[in-house]
């Protein structure tokens, strides 16, 4: 799968996508991420990409032309399944959306900055708008990194034990059961006996029960959905 991310601050994306599971998936060739600096199509000697808003509101807006040119350049090379704009007023991102996007071949993620982007891009080019929650960040880069991470860790081979992604929270509509590792006792705090029993059936039953109990207690809304 290939993800193209368009940004005015590409440096913000380097570290989150360069290490751990996502970094390794890219090195292994399971996913490709290409980050494009919007300033490539900026205007004038300062490569300007933003301007004042019509109507006189405070805050700068990313201009329509550089975004259009950048996306046209990418579309001339290949077909995109989705052109996603990260936006606080988009659909709230969740595991279902991550699963769905992980099946796509090529996607573009467009990061806004400052006060946002010229609305004509959203009206005419963007196919989907995604929010990472009801709060406002300075730019779409951290949200884009979150979306890319959630997608890439689902791709076959990204996680060595493939069942591991499947047992994560939300994957089956439930929160995950608690997890423990060695030592079995620390400071008098014990790992639940059942996990030391070596009986896979009992362990599975305990995990299912814990997942259900935690979901009921912490996120009852998930059970209604
Ligand atoms: N004026 C805009 C917010 C601009 S914040 C508004 O009120 O809706 C600048 C950029 O950060 C946005 O263009 C968007 O790309 C990104 N951003 C901020 N918060 C976000 C969120 N919760 N989810 C996704 N992207 C977000």
UniProtKB/TrEMBL annotation:
Sample GO molecular function, one term: tRNA (guanine(37)-N1)-methyltransferase activity
Subcellular localization: Cytoplasm
An individual GO BP term: tRNA N1-guanine methylation
Its EC number(s): 2.1.1.228
Pfam family, one: tRNA_m1G_MT
Keyword match Transferase: yes
Enzyme class, first EC level, given as a word: transferase
Boundaries of every tRNA methyltransferase TRMD/TRM10-type domain copy: 1-224
Gene Ontology CC terms: cytosol
Keyword Methyltransferase in record: yes
HAMAP family: TrmD (MF_00605)
Assembly: Homodimer.
Protein family: Belongs to the RNA methyltransferase TrmD family.
Name listed for the protein in its UniProt record: tRNA (guanine-N(1)-)-methyltransferase
Gene behind this protein: trmD
């Amino acid at each position: 799968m290939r993800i193209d991310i368009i940004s005015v601050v590409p440096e913000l994306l380097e570290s989150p996508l360069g290490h751990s599971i996502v970094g390794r998936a890219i090195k292994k060739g399971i996913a490709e991420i290409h980050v494009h600096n919007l300033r490539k199509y900026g205007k004038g000697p300062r490569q300007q990409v933003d301007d004042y808003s019509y109507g006189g509101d405070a805050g700068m807006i990313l201009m329509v032309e550089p975004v259009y040119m950048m996306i046209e350049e990418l579309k001339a090379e290949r077909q995109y399944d989705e052109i996603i704009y990260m936006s606080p007023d988009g659909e709230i991102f969740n595991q279902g959306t991550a699963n769905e996007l992980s099946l796509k071949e090529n996607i573009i993620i467009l990061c806004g900055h400052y006060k946002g982007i010229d609305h004509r891009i959203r009206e005419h080019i963007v196919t989907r708008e995604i929010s990472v929650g009801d709060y406002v960040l300075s730019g779409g880069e951290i949200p884009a990194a979150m979306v890319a991470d959630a997608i890439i860790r689902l791709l076959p081979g990204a996680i060595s034990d493939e069942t591991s992604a499947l047992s994560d929270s939300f994957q089956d509509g439930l929160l995950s059961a608690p997890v423990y590792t060695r030592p079995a006792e620390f400071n008098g705090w014990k790992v639940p006996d059942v996990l030391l029993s070596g009986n896979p059936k009992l362990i599975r039953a305990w995990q299912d029960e814990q997942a259900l109990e935690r979901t009921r207690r912490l996120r009852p809304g998930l059970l209604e959905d």
